[in-house]
């Protein structure tokens, strides 16, 4: 395969965008390991007392990721995130007002490989605040990341919180409303389906978020991120293949999936880990009113789940033509 090199005449702004995305890839794939390694060096080196002080802090601060986190508007508004969003570009689209007097649970679809749309729209920039004034977004991610020294402080500063039940309850239990939980419904398992053109969502057996919405009376909002699966190519891993079986077993053991993905490089377009420049349009649907029910029955959960799937499909069908999805293509629920 011949390499396709980037032209020398690429504008400086586009090069800065590429660097911004490169640091995001590093943060997503390697920063946690780097932080853990640095912590071990502190323990084994002459600065072990700093590690001990941090362990004391970690003990005292352990519940913060489940109690709304500790966001930093300074971090969320870094200029690097502006270039990150412009690289693709990433855009948030509003279809309906969300009354800030309520709390909301936004179901984000699809996961994609690295959930770029969710991060770009809900953890950086002013788009969400401008479109939905009075609402504070909380992106829920796997609890395992909050056990990583130093890295936990960084992701909390961006507005990320734990995806545990306690964390979701804390956000949705806000008196007077104004909170929005964003949950990537398909989870890590869905990332293994993140091939270009794929419209397969892991959602049929995902009903915990429905129960949480009922228990807290949080209105449900389907969100579909067009272009999320187009950012990377992934090694073929059809269900039943040896690779998919290994990936699924590792996912069950570690709690997160390991998709074998690739896209482009920094100076060439043929191979690398930097995502393709594909636009991401994250469309926020209309709210589904939910009445508080502290002890919902299985039937009530099933009924609301069916309504949610219906509204998610409706959202996709109404907007797919705007973002290059052929008319005959439709969502596949698994």
What does this structure look like?
Helix 1 packs across helix 4 (79-87). The model has no long low-confidence stretch (mean pLDDT 94). It contains 12 helices and 11 strands. The strands form 3 sheets. A 7-stranded mixed beta sheet has the order 1-10-7-2-5-3-4, with helices on both faces. Strands 6-11 form a two-stranded parallel ribbon. It has one domain: Glycerol-3-phosphate (1)-acyltransferase (3-Layer(aba) Sandwich). By secondary structure, the protein is of the alpha/beta class.
Topology, pairings included?
Blueprint: H1 12-44, H2 48-60, H3 73-76, H4 79-87, E1 90-94, E2 104-109, H5 116-122, H6 127-131, E3 136-141, H7 151-157, E4 160-162, H8 165-172, E5 179-184, H9 187-190, E6 200-201, H10 208-216, E7 219-226, E8 233-234, H11 242-254, E9 261-262, E10 280-284, H12 298-319, E11 332-333
Parallel strand pairs: 1-10, 2-5, 2-7, 3-4, 3-5, 6-11
Antiparallel strand pairs: 7-10, 8-9
EC number: 2.3.1.-
Protein name: Acyltransferase
Family: Belongs to the diacylglycerol acyltransferase family.
């Amino acid at each position: 395969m011949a390499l396709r090199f980037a032209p020398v005449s690429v504008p400086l702004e586009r090069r800065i965008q590429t660097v911004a995305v490169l640091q995001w890839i590093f943060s997503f794939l390697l920063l946690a390991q780097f932080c853990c390694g640095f912590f071990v060096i502190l323990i084994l080196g002459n600065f072990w007392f700093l590690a001990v002080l941090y362990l004391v802090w970690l003990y005292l601060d352990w519940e913060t990721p489940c109690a709304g986190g500790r966001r930093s508007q300074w971090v969320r508004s870094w200029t690097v995130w502006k270039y990150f969003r412009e690289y693709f570009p990433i855009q948030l689209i509003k279809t309906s007002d969300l009354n800030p007097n309520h709390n909301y649970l936004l179901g984000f679809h699809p996961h994609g490989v690295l959930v770029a749309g969710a991060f770009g729209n809900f953890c950086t920039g002013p788009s969400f605040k401008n479109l939905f004034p009075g609402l504070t977004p909380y992106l829920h991610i796997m609890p395992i990341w909050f056990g990583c020294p130093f890295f936990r402080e960084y992701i909390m500063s961006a507005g990320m919180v734990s995806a545990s039940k306690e964390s979701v309850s804390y956000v949705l239990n806000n008196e007077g409303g104004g909170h929005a939980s964003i949950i990537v419904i398909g989870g890590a398992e869905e990332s293994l389906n993140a091939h270009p053109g794929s419209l397969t969502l892991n959602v049929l057996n995902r009903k915990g978020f429905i129960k949480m919405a009922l228990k807290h009376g949080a209105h449900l909002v389907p969100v579909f991120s067009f272009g999320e699966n187009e950012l990377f190519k992934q090694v073929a891993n059809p269900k039943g293949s040896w690779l998919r079986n290994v990936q699924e077993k590792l996912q069950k053991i570690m709690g997160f999936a390991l998709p074998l993905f690739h896209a482009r490089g920094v100076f060439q377009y043929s191979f690398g880990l930097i995502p393709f420049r594909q636009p991401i349009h994250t469309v926020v649907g209309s709210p589904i009113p939910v009445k508080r029910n502290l002890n919902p029955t299985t039937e009530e959960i099933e009924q609301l789940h069916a309504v949610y799937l219906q509204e998610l499909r409706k959202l996709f069908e109404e907007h797919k033509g705007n973002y290059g999805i052929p008319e005959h293509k439709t969502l596949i629920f698994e």
